[in-house]
Write a structure and sequence with these properties.
Length: 150
């Protein structure tokens, strides 16, 4: 299985970028990973333009997980169970989408197979990326029985 992360813009803050790289590296020990950074929209563009760019970067056979404040909130052990279910299903790729500052287009929302909320709180995009990577890494440590999750 492969995890593909599709998000709008680059992580500009060095501290967040360092954490992002750290957890990306840790996660890569368990699963193949790839990041696709979509260009931020111009002021006159909006979620529909970004949505088109996101859709263009999705593989048709990928299970699509949309990060959304209105999505399903699950615990770390439940996320580990979800990862195991994806593995048992024999999925080749799971794509995680983090939209832009104004959310995602309706088209992206309709394509999503699973909507996941990291928190009821509003997180910056940099924070959301790090939290997502860390929680996926934590999920694998739970699956493998490593002591990290304690």
């Amino acid at each position: 299985m492969k995890f593909r992360f599709i998000w709008i813009g680059k992580t500009k803050d060095k501290s967040w970028k360092s954490l992002q790289d750290e957890y990306f590296g840790r996660l890569s020990h368990f699963v193949k990973c790839e990041v696709v950074e979509i260009r931020d929209s111009a002021p006159h563009e909006g979620p529909d333009i970004e949505g088109k760019r996101i859709v263009e970067n999705l593989n048709q056979n990928s299970l699509v997980v949309l990060l959304d404040v209105k999505g399903r909130q699950i615990s770390s052990p439940e996320l580990a169970e979800q990862i195991e279910k994806w593995q048992v299903r024999g999925l080749k790729e799971v794509s995680f989408i983090i939209g832009g500052a104004f959310g995602v287009s309706r088209a992206v929302g309709e394509i999503a197979d699973f909507s996941l909320s990291l928190s009821f709180l509003t997180l910056t995009h940099d924070m959301a990326r790090v939290v997502l990577l860390e929680q996926l890494y934590r999920g694998y440590t739970i699956i493998k029985g490593f002591p990290y999750q304690k």
